[in-house]
Amino acid sequence: MDKIVVKGGRKLKGRVRIGGAKNAVLPMMAACLLTRGESVIRNVPVLADVITMKKVLERLGARVALRGHTLRVDTSTITDHEAPYELVRTMRASVYVLGPLVASIGKAKVSLPGGCAWGPRPVDLHIRALQELGARIEIDHGYIVAGASVLKGNTVVFSLPSVGATANTMMAAARARGKTIIVNAAREPEIVALADFINRMGGKIRGAGNDTIEVEGRAELSPAEVRVIPDRIEAGTYMIAGAITAGEIELENCVPEHVEVITQKLRQSGVVVEKSRNSIYVRGKRRLESVDVVTAPYPGFPTDMQAQYMSLMTIARGTCVISETVFPDRFTHVPELRRLGANIKIDGNTAHVGYIKRLSGAPVMATDLRASAALVLAGLVAEGETHISRVYHIDRGYEAIEEKLGALGADIKRVPE
Ligand code: EPZ
Q1: Mean pLDDT of the chain
Q2: pLDDT(321) > 80
Q3: Domain-by-domain residue ranges, the chain?
Q4: Nearest atom of ligand 1 to the alpha carbon of 303
Q5: What's the gap in Å between 326 CA and the centre of ligand 1?
Q6: What is the pLDDT of residue 200?
């Protein structure tokens, strides 16, 4: 296992290119199962999670080739309908094959994903929605076993705007007979991107990005070509890298409106953020002010940015109150930040982040994808060296992070543990 060693104190300067969105490409890869033939997905980030989804599709009989940042997914021959535990437990997004498999071949056997570092990650909304479209589903020895001779359009009302459940339902409904209306749908840009891809296949999805989505089912869908939207969480992470080091960086190939709420919070804390059509300029400064945050489904402050933002707030004046309403236990980064000297108190799903003049480097451990990004960000300003172990977490969601930060002037390297 590798670790990342960061020597703090450098101001980041320069330009960084944002890659394709992990949380868009994963459902899009699963959506290829709705068609028979070869689809092409461009601007794909080279990440561990993309490789895992590639393995899941290959396990089902698809042929998947990743060359550079272009993915070719040929689903001409689907020979199996099982997503096994050893793949699903490494990446819960494997559950995205459930809807497309039931819709296209009438059956699926997908391992329950189990929990993650910060608690249970249920899929009850996915299952109930597919049942409302006519699938018969049972849980057998840790597997979701689903079958349906045909799926029928219906109205599906979510108790909360689940991203994954919205994606799975939209994909299944795209091949169902008749019309489906999804109420209280997730509004994330990744859902809009998935709907766009399915529409390119010949689907008929309207309203993606709003809380009500209409899907006209189609008997057949055809392979399509698409380019993945920029990753708004990668963009937000680099915005904070520029802010926390009091540096000056330009993010290229991003969508400013997808990170609007992060821009607002950074500006309120004293960071200069200037937007143009597909780039964002960030200039940090030494003495930032604390600005409270409550995470919420899009377009609210993303839960996937909570840990990174907390790193920034450890050195902002005053006390910052961060409430995590999407995944209440998503604070595994807090004990690690405390090892760097941060002054953080947890009260239920709320963190009270006090001020400290300077973090100090120490060995810390990554526990999940965004927590590891938060530790890298803290290491950029901590006095001395920060050693971050278990960096396989970070490789799930950030392509070439040490190269990109190094090119901006950070003193960062990856070494064998
Ligand atoms: C997606 O996860 C993202 N993953 C997560 O990003 C992100 O944190 C999350 O959406 C919220 O934005 C991918 O897109 C691959 P949810 P997902 O269903 O779909 C509860 C990252 O760092 N819930 O919107 O699993 C759930 O427990 C990852 O890139 C149910 O109760 O999130 C949570 O409290 C981490 N039952 C809330 O809904 C269900 O059936 C929102 O979860 C499904 C979800």
Answers
A1: 97
A2: yes
A3: 2-19+230-416, 22-227
A4: 8
A5: 8
A6: 98
Protein residue closest via CA to atom 16 of ligand 1: 162
For residue 164, how far is its CA from the centre of ligand 1 (angstroms)? 6
Distance 132 CA to ligand 1 centre (A): 21
Ligand 1 pocket list (CB less than 6 A)? 22-23, 26, 93, 121-126, 160, 162-165, 186, 303-304, 326-327, 369-370, 397
* CA-based nearest residue to 62, from 51, 52, 53, 73: 73
Confirm whether 2-19+230-416 and 22-227 share one CATH topology. yes
Query: For ligand 1, what atom is nearest to the CA of residue 369?
Result: 22
**Protein residue whose Cα sits closest to atom 25 of ligand 1:** 164
Side chain identity, residue 64: V
Domain 22-227 in this protein, CATH class: alpha beta
Dihedral sign of CA atoms 371, 239, 71, 24 in order: positive
CATH class of 2-19+230-416: alpha beta
Distance in Å, CA 296 to ligand 1 centroid: 11
Compute CA distances 153 → 100, 101, 103, 126, 134, whole Å.
14, 16, 11, 15, 8
Catalytic residue of the set 32, 116, 254, 320: 116
Query: Are the C-beta atoms of residues 376 and 412 closer than 8 Å to each other?
Result: yes
Q: What is the mean pLDDT of residues 25-46?
A: 98
pLDDT in tens, 45-69: 999 999 999 999 999 999 999 999 9
Which residue CA neighbors atom 44 of ligand 1 most closely?
162
